[in-house]
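Figure S4 source data
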Amino acid sequence: MSRTEETAERAGPFTTRLTWRLDDGATAVWESRRARKRGLLTVRAADAAESRSRSADRGSVRRLRRLNTLTAGSFAVGGGLFVAGAAVAQFGPVDARGAWIYFAGGLFFNAGGYAALLEAVNAPRRDSGAGALAARRWRWWRYEPGRIDWLSTFLLFVGTLVFGINLVGSLLQGLSVRQENGLVWAPDLIGCALFLVSGHLALVEVCHGRPGLRPHELGWWIVAVNQFGSALFMVSALADFTRPATGSVVNVDIANWGTLAGALCFCAGGVLQFYERP
């Protein structure tokens, strides 16, 4: 079947929305995030009087639902554990309990980051001639840096792994100031930077170009809340630097409260993701 592509909305080299005309005169609209998260594309009748959503096949929908539940649950639980860890660090006794709570939360962030990447890897693809979404063969990994959803989720996953270095380092005892900054602070800063870049790409994807306000879209709220949380994590990381001259942290209160508030954002974003499902 033939089709004529009408428009391709891009953000730099990335395509975030495609619109094309079908053989029956109807118009199909594919959006990157909507297809990946909801398993849907939009089809408008030739007279523009009717607009309906077409879902992917049942197998793809079940797969996307499972991945969405895993992603949402992992970030909700991981964010909650980070909140608890920050609260213990701020108000509790000075011992290793907070570090172990952070470590447990980090494992959930790892799981959520990989599940988000799997969503991008296994997202149904558009069947341009039929104006529908076609299933893909399941894969645990695929290298597709030319897709904005893949790049965003890949950077998010790598960020969670880098945070893991920070969390393991925080469990070690007797570190010098140089080791503390190298094993704990530097991975924290790099992980926050990766989260911010990932969140920016997610905003670009959901806004189909320059980031802006889209308060009527659930996907925008999820991305915006998580990006705000990433910014708070970055503030916390900057405040957690240990001065070589004095051996003291720049501002421990800002470090703890920034982590707590940022983790609350990720917890809220995880809860919201339960509602952005096929």
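Figure S5 source data
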Amino acid sequence: MARHPKFKRLLAVRIATQASDGTLQVGMASYVLFSPQSQPNAVAIAAVLAITLLPFSFLGPFASVVLDRWSRQRVVVWTDALRATIALSLAALVFTGDRSFRIQAVMFGLLLVAMSANRFLLAGLTAGLPYTVNKSEYLTASSIMPTIGPTGVLIGGAIAGGLRVALAPRYMQTHQADAIVFVVAALMFCTSVALAFGFGKHELGPEPGQSRPSVKRVLPDLREALSVIRHQAPIGIGLTTIFVARMCFGLISVGVILGYRNYFHTVKQVNAAMADIGLWGAFTGVGFVLSAVLVPPLAHRFGLRTTLMMLLLGTAVMQAIPGSIFHRTTLLIAAFGIGLFAQSIKIVVDTVCQIHVDDNYKGRVFVIYDMLFNAAIVAAAALAILVLPAGGFSHLVFIGTGVAYLLLAVWFWWQTGRTGGREAFDVGQHGSGSLVGEQQAIEDEVAPVVTVAEEPRAEPA
């Protein structure tokens, strides 16, 4: 893949922006959840996740209007420039040490904008991916790109966590160290902006000549995207699968965070708890990264449908044993395995969407994808409030989550079997196969709401 200059630059932008995002997230988590004065519970974690992730689920349809009609390169430039400004503003607020309700409300408002903009940007980068590779390389590209994201987050998280532990409380107060973390995040966002300027205005799509974005297009555009999902069964099944799998992953993540903070450590052992959670996150991240090595050979050998089934079954086993044994070593082993399988599941679903969605709808479909992805984590945190104890660890919940993965695997195999099986789910995996019939049905249905004439396309060989 290194022979594609545009793909390499897209990877660099993705690493830079997500490393910046990881630094910002760890800085905020450190300030809110890991101050010596607080002992977080599931409600606190759910509140942070809801504030940072849920807004995009409401703003997504409006963002989708832009992604299919406005330069995706400009989306990256302006979004990360905005987030650099937000990071500096957060640094100034945190440095004051003022924890009044008014200041914290402003901080969460800024973070809300920054995180919503992050999902918007990532949807744009994903929609622009086909402009950087050949069609036959979608599987490989889709396995690399989502893996690069967690790698960037790990880099940013390591920088932020290292700064926080090294500076506080030895050299300065904790809130001052958190402020420095936000300044570093701002500098990293500026790096992403500089890299994005290496692309031409339309090199990531959409093609020039699209109609200008308009709020009036939100409902028609959403209808078109939903029509694509409805007519292409593999997309609908894939999005449902990733939503449920992400909910399970989110529930376990909240439980582990609470366990490391409240079960393994006392309220005063802030740095020790952060170090343990950082190690758990690192093992999960290594699994994320190695998914790029696991998925392509599996998918080429067995096909996307069988590979996804195997990944769901593997996650079910890993979550039941050792994931439900509450010991640091077994939790780290489970973190690696579940991270490996969870990211691999996302790679397969990403590839299915790249294959089955025409570029005219790709930005909108991936925005809906991201909306579901975020909403699943927030739903998991809300569920955690109801089912997890204060210490986070519950054998019933952790084993039950493994059973949920197993039931999801059974549902997935049944649904894909009744809608065409491997032939329908894997069509086009290697750049071959035609979706002309399904695509024509979509275009016939959405034709009444399409206002821009499209260039005629040659039929695929």
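Residues 5-206+215-449 form a domain with the Growth Hormone; Chain: A; fold (CATH 1.20.1250.20). The chain has 15 helices and no strands.
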